[in-house]
Design a protein that fits this description.
Elements lengths: L15 H12 L6 H6 L8 H10 L3 E6 L13 E5 L3 E9 L20 E5 L8 E4 H7 E9 L6 H4 L2 H5 L2 H8 L1 H17 L2 H16 L2 H49 L10 H17 L3 H8 L3 H12 L4 H44 L1 H6 L3 H28 L2
Antiparallel strand pairs: 1-6, 2-3, 2-6, 3-4, 4-5
Helix pairs in contact: 7-10, 8-10, 9-10, 10-11, 11-14, 14-16
Organism: Desulfovibrio piger ATCC 29098
InterPro entries: ABC1_TM_dom, ABC1_TM_sf, Peptidase_C39, Type_1_exporter
GO molecular function: ABC-type transporter activity; ATP binding; ATPase-coupled lipid transmembrane transporter activity; peptidase activity
């Protein structure tokens, strides 16, 4: 028992900001206990940003606004949470202006004392509200207010669209980082234009500089090409950095969303095989690797093929028909191999999922396997699954090697 005869159950350890958020949700018509809100936190620090994340998980909308003066707040937008100094908070439910000098009775509601007051709910006494002087509250106010609202209930035909909207959780995250990929595209434009400097430099040197023994011109051209290549190196480094930043941030957000979906999943929706679920979550690493690898940069560079074809046509004229004739052949061959490679990739994915599921279930049920003396049977199952997985992976690699 603690000092003074207090027991741990008699002490409230709940963060005050969560109690304020619970009171605000109750005033908004959606009762959420502080314990429920605490379970939705992803870290040990309770901040305004963490409260917004918890509120959004609960189906609410919210934002943190900077409003330095309490007198400028409108009663139409209340209640809201006021962030006070010393990591304290309260729920502001109403502002009561003071009575002006010489005001007649029967007018607008005033405090009755001539001083502006605010009706607030403190987390220590969340069940009751009290009036405090507005000036005293302004001294403790940090200037930030947290607003939470309950969105309107959708109609039945709109409710059916929830599943379709949920499919956008992946692309919405990538669309959020689209400005970074626009920087990558701009860098790719300049890099591909710089790539034209090498053939133009060689053509001018062999056609004009060498026959005329123009050493000064050669030095000028060489200096310009060196400067261009330095810019090319810098732009390539920046482009790689941008792709890494976007891929890393997207990976953090997507991983957080995936784990959040797993934790909030209804138990009846849980797959029977835990290993399969773990394998599906792990396979999302390949998407992160794509959005931060050279494959994405290669996809961005594809449109610049037109620029090089125009350059070949400008310099060599009819020679441009050779790459133009080869392009449909290469594209057709790639599409043909893609069909077979996709089939092999699907088989390999299924076999890997079964292998991972079997491994997890063997480890979790190791005591049962030993008690039933089923080691040999599980060994045969493992060898069969591994053999099929290795066969599918090898076949998929053959198709990949056939198309570099």
């Amino acid at each position: 028992m603690a000092a003074g005869g207090l027991r741990p159950s008699d002490v409230d350890f709940m963060p005050p900001l969560l109690r304020s958020l619970s009171a605000l949700c109750r005033l908004r018509g959606k009762a959420l206990s502080p314990q429920f809100l605490l379970a939705g936190l992803s870290g040990s620090t309770v901040s305004a940003q963490a409260c917004l994340r918890v509120a959004r998980k609960a189906g609410l909308t919210g934002s943190v606004l900077y409003r330095p003066l309490l007198a400028e707040l409108s009663n139409l937008t209340l209640p809201c949470i006021l962030l006070l100094s010393g990591n304290r908070s309260c729920v502001l439910t109403r502002l009561i202006p003071g009575a002006p000098a010489g005001a007649e009775e029967g007018g607008a509601e005033t405090s009755g004392t001539g001083q502006a007051q605010a009706e607030v709910i403190f987390p220590e006494t969340e069940s009751t509200s009290q009036l405090v002087p507005l000036d005293a509250l302004q001294e403790e106010y940090t200037g930030y207010a947290l607003y939470v609202a309950v969105p309107g209930r959708p109609q039945e035909h709109v409710e059916k669209l929830r599943l379709a909207k949920g499919k956008r959780w992946f692309w919405d995250v990538l669309r959020y980082y689209a400005p970074i990929y626009r920087h990558v595209a701009l860098a790719s434009v300049i890099i591909n234009l710089i790539a034209l400097a090498s053939p133009l430099f060689a053509m001018n040197v062999y056609d004009r500089v060498v026959p005329n023994n123009a050493i000064e011109t050669l030095w000028v051209l060489a200096s310009g090409v060196i400067i261009i290549y330095l810019f090319d190196f810098l732009l390539r480094a920046l482009r790689t950095h941008f792709v890494d930043v976007a891929g890393r941030n997207a990976d953090i957000v997507l991983s957080s969303n995936l784990v959040d979906k797993v934790l909030t999943m209804r138990l009846e929706s849980k797959p029977e095989s835990t290993g399969s679920l773990v394998n599906n979550l792990r396979e999302f690493e390949q998407l992160r690797e794509f959005f931060s690898s050279s494959s994405l940069l290669a996809c961005i560079d594809v449109p610049f093929l037109v620029i090089f074809l125009l350059l070949i046509a400008f310099i060599a004229g009819p020679m441009v028909f050779l790459p133009l004739a080869a392009m449909p052949i290469l594209i057709g061959l790639g599409l043909f191999l893609q069909t077979a490679a996709r089939r092999c990739a699907e088989q390999s994915y299924k076999q890997n999922m079964q292998k991972n599921a079997l491994l997890v279930e063997m480890v979790n049920g190791l005591e049962t396997i030993k008690a039933c003396q089923a080691e040999s049977r599980m060994q045969r199952l493992w060898e069969a699954v591994v053999g099929l997985s290795a066969k599918s992976t090898a076949e998929s690699r053959r198709y990949t090697a056939a198309w570099p």
